Amino acid sequence: MTEIRPLTPAYPALARSYDAEFRVDPAYKDSLPDLQNGPASLIVGARTAIQHVGISNFRLPIRYLVRDGGEITLETSVTGTVSLEADRKGINMSRIMRSFYGHADHAFSLSVLEAALDDYKTDLDALDARIQMRFSYPVRVDSLRSGLSGWQYYDIALEVIDVAGARLRVMHVDYVYSSTCPCSLELSEHARQTRGRLATPHSQRSVARISLVMDGPERIWFEDVIALCRAAVPTETQVMVKREDEQAFAELNAANPIFVEDAVRAFAGQLIADPRVGDFRVVASHQESLHSHDAVSLLTSGPTFAQASLDPATFAGLRA
């Protein structure tokens, strides 16, 4: 005998048009569900603290001061996170963006970071908070001999970290340079001198990421760190070149052959000598023209950047 089941109640006939005239009043707003601030019983998985939770890569224009005077506005990618205690379900992510927008129109880079960080901790009732701003910073660079000039762009990030009430200010700068292999240079000269054979040493585009804690009362500018990099490894890649510049660059590389081990130590020497620099990390990648793999090195000073384990993308993220 066929079982006769009751008909399923009809789905409510809900309006399918957007109500542009509707306005939210305080009572309606208070009635809206807020799962992120719900009870601990809603927590999924282990009831444990989370060190970082927030948003990444929201973009907006930020004003930056230039060392020689004036300012520049650059599109900036922001990552903002806070800590989350074990008994809390989540955070309201939009508050992070609102905090940032509240300061971006009337303050400069580091001031925006500091003020937004204070807001984060207050608005989200967090113990720890971190903000990072990433941008591409243009600097006018002269050619070596022809008198031309062009814009060199540096990938830079500013970071403010507040952990257990202690605040760190960190700068990251990517510096792209040419590295001529000292061994290849000597072997090429050996072929010329002993056998009369034309030979050329191999060189490659290389990149170092300098990460440093901004220490002391005196400000260290983006331009200062770039100059520090050039002093350590002068074979920065060129923007505008004519034949005389290309020849000059070949001579500059021959005068400064460098292994990846030499590179990180050269950068470290400049960083150690600058009193505005606290702890630091140098990660370098020489993207070989001889091999199908890269030569890499990492050097740290101080506890801030010390690490036993490497992120799998530590070196892969360095692309010249």
UniProtKB/TrEMBL annotation:
Single Gene Ontology MF annotation: GTP cyclohydrolase I activity
Any Pfam family the entry gives: GCHY-1
EC number(s) given by UniProt: 3.5.4.16
Swiss-Prot/TrEMBL GO biological process terms: tetrahydrofolate biosynthetic process
Presence of keyword Hydrolase: yes
Keywords from the named record: Hydrolase
InterPro entries according to UniProt: GTP_cyclohydrolase_FolE2, GTP_cyclohydrolase_FolE2/MptA
Site feature May be catalytically important, where: C181
Catalytic activity field: GTP + H2O = 7,8-dihydroneopterin 3'-triphosphate + formate + H(+)
Similarity field: Belongs to the GTP cyclohydrolase IV family.
PANTHER family, per the entry: GTP CYCLOHYDROLASE MPTA (PTHR36445)
The protein, known as: GTP cyclohydrolase FolE2
Organism: Paracoccus haeundaensis
